Structure formats: C-alpha cells, structure tokens
Amino acid sequence: MPWNKELFDTLSVREQFRDNYWHTKDPILAERLLWRINVFRHLVHLLPHESILEFGSGDGLFTEVINTATHGRNQLTSATFSEDSGKTRSVPAGVERVNLRSSPEALQGRTFNFIIVMDLLDGRTAGETLSLIYDLLAPGGQVVFSESNPWNLMLRFRRLLSRLIKRRDPRTLMSRSSLYELLSEIGFIRIFAVFVDFMYAPLTKGLINRLQGISVILENFPIIRTYAGAILIHAQKTNRARPIKPRLAMILAKG
Questions:
Q1: Can you tell me the distance from the alpha carbon of 234 to that of 183, in angstroms, rounded to the nearest whole number?
Q2: For every one of its 255 residues, what pLDDT tens digit does the chain have, with 9 covering 90 and above?
C-alpha cells in the first residue's frame, strides 16, 4: 500500500485529536459509541464470522465496544497509526491489534468484509485514505464513516476561540457534498451520507438525556439538519475492478 509520511502524520493527529475529545469533552461518550456500533450493525447487516477492520483505532476504546457488541463472533482487526504512548488498552481476546506506523506492511494483501472509520477523513489526505480503504475491502464489502460536520455551529464557535488562544484545530474537515463526490470518484457505489447528532458539549449528560427526542426531530428538519454534529456515511465496494479516474491518478501520483 502506498503509505507516505504525510498520510501517516495526518491520520495519527486525527486519531489523537478524536481520542482526546472523547476522553475530555464528550458528555455521553459511552452512549454515543454504543449508538454508533448499533448503527454500523444495522447498516451492514453484520453476520457472525465476517471480518471487520477498525481503521484508525487510536487507544482502542471503540475496539472494546465493537468486540462487546459482536460478542467476539467476528474477526476483528484494530489498526492504529499512532505511536504507542502507554495509554493503549489491552485488546480483548481474539482481537488483532496492528500498528501501521511501526508495521506498515501488516495489512498488505489483506481484505475485509467491513471497515469502520471514526473521524479520520482529512481534506489533505482523504483521497489517499479512501483509496487505501477501497483496496482493503473485499469485493462487495462495505464501509461506514462517522465524520465531524464542518458546518456545525458549535464547532465553528470552538474553532474561533481556539484561534484566539492560539490552539488551532489541526483538522481539515470536509463537507458532506465533498465526501460524497470523492467516494463516488474513487469507485464506491450505493453511497449515502446523512447529517446526525445534535447532542454534544456544552450540553450536560442530564440535558442530553432529556433532549434526545429533539435531536431526532432536528436531524430530519430541512436546512437545520445541515448544522448537526456529525456526518454518517455508508458506501460499498463494487464487485468489478475500479477505473482509475484522472483526479484520483493525480492524488496517488503525489505519494
């Protein structure tokens, strides 16, 4: 696979930023991760013994959630791009943990039925990342992404404050339309992308528990839903060989 330093560095930063947010700012982290794995299972119609790759697993928190939800009946591989800082959890029995920074060849030649990606697609490297994910999917395989929505008003406010105190958000987030276009260009089929989740800080856990119904309403309300906290994306790999389109060829050439 065509790894390069910029790709490694970007994915590592995205992993660390996401994990730090989960541990320090997310008021309903356990509930949110449970909701996301249940959505994943519903979207892909997961069956026992099918293989799953968690692409960009960070410290392994979501790995535990996936393994628990699947009762250990699926071949689960947890792949991280970050240096081992000593904070990484011990993986559950039967789960394969690989560090692609120290062992970039670990997934060489392998494919998976399903891939799940959490807040990892970056505007600087999204083309390369999606191309790698496409190659890691078995024919007909499916991938589910959960990405931060750059149109979210609270995110914009936080980024303004971060600039004022000179602590910039290191991510280059992509809009739903940009992600959809790039996925289609790379060769994915049956793509859909929806805005989800209005339950996030500074709301407290107590308020979120009372307002969950309102979040569902807002997710289905025209215009307002475009300001949700996340973009949920599902896509599938075709059973046929993909064409290398001009723009993708240029992206890969940069590696």
A1: 10
A2: 556 888 989 999 999 999 999 999 888 888 889 999 999 999 998 899 999 999 999 999 999 999 999 998 999 999 999 876 556 677 788 899 999 988 888 999 999 999 999 999 999 999 999 999 999 999 999 999 999 999 988 888 777 777 777 778 899 999 999 999 999 999 999 999 999 987 776 666 666 666 666 766 777 777 888 888 899 999 999 986 555 444 444 444 443
Range of the domain at 144: 5-254
If one counts the domains in the chain, the total is 1
Cα 101 to Cα 163: distance, rounded to the nearest angstrom: 30
Rg (CA), the chain: 18
pTM exceeding the 0.90 threshold for the entire prediction: no
List, edge to edge, every strand of the sheet that includes 96-99. Answer: 96-99, 75-80, 51-55, 112-118, 137-148, 230-237, 188-196
* Burial class for 54, CB neighbours closer than 10 Å (0-12, 13-18, 19+): buried
User: Cβ atoms within 10 A of the Cβ of 245, count?
Assistant: 13
Say how far apart CA 79 and CA 8 lie, in whole Å: 12
Amino acid at 204: T
We report the CATH number of the domain holding residue 156 as: 3.40.50.150
